[in-house]
Predict the structure.
Amino acid sequence: MKAIINLNQLVTCSHTSSKAKRGPEMNDVGVISNGAIIIDNGLIRGVGSTYSLQKTIDKIPKENIIDGKGKIVIPGFVDSHTHAIFAGTREAEFAMRLQGKAYMDILLAGGGILSSRQKLIDSTDDEIIEQTKARFDRMMAFGTTTVEAKSGYGLSTEQELRSLELLKALSDRHAIEVQSTFLGAHAIPPEYKDSKADYVSLVCNEMIPIIASKKLAKYCDVFCEKGVFDVEDTERIFETAISHGLELRLHSDEIEALGGTELACALGARSVDHLIAVTNSGLKALEKCETIANLLPGTSYSLMKTFAPGREMIDRNIAISLSTDCNPGSCYTESMPMIISLACLNMKLTPAEALNAATFNGACSLGIQDRVGSLEMGKEADLLLMDMQSYEAIPYHFGINPVLRTMKFGEWIS
Ligand SMILES: [Zn+2]
């Protein structure tokens, strides 16, 4: 048994319901002053004030107790949208964007996702694993204990399978928890430029059945955007994914709204992600369903674009989460504290709303909120010890790493 005691704040992010937090619930992060948390066998065995837990704390050997005076503990971050498995980086395109080139122009000129595809093909398994491991290590150092990671730079059966297999091999021996998503429909490969329907058929008839049978992914995602995959393609891929037992996530309304959000809501997707260009019709669909609006303010920041209407969504009782979108093109960061800061400053979220979106609601978007995302009795001990007096300092003191130590399933991993 171990404990952290005398914490200035123990921030639980707990919720009375197993559903995502919405509206005013987002402003409740469950702060316990002079807090303590007790951990045993990877699970949380006590949450409360140090005073209320004193009898149990007295039984724990001194060397297993951390004095958290002047510090806080919060749940580990759940980063529920990343493209973390990739080879090489694309800083040259970043420089091009600064000179005014549009992201979609770079993609259509063979750059963007297609250049990452070439780098993936040209890299050895060891190189891809090593680079992805370094990213996971940085994520843990910045407080992420659970990460969703997508394929989508392979764009062929062989390379998509390879990406997901490497992701599984790495996650099996890495402390961070990985939730895998198949994103074969991330871009149209050049060899299918004039026969997109054939590529969609390949995704549906070959890739999804193999990936589902090998249990290499829990979710299926599509990049639903003008010039890439339209709503009809998305529907075809999603119907196939459902029939093979995969859950749905969707890149939607990043640049233009095509109706993907409404489709994803109708099909019971776990999340709809980006939503920079969401319409009133999309917002209405999100109001009425359990699908979570997964917002990625780092992408708006890095692409120098407008931000998704996070404030309006919370005010309209739409459930939102926050994620990094860590990828080599439009947003290269592993830092959830940075994302929380961007969400507060650019979407006008309160620090409490942003923290709930980055923890409990992130877990809801992955359907794992019964285990992780908040600090409650019986849940897994995924938590962060942070060097601050209050959680409100997370967005306030930006550009630094406020995480002193990261705990996953009861063990310090960073
Ligand atoms: Zn993405």
About this structure: DSSP finds 16 helices and 16 strands in the chain. The pocket of zinc ion is lined by residues 81, 83, 251, 325, 327 (CB under 6 Å). The longest helix spans residues 196-213. The radius of gyration is 21 Å.
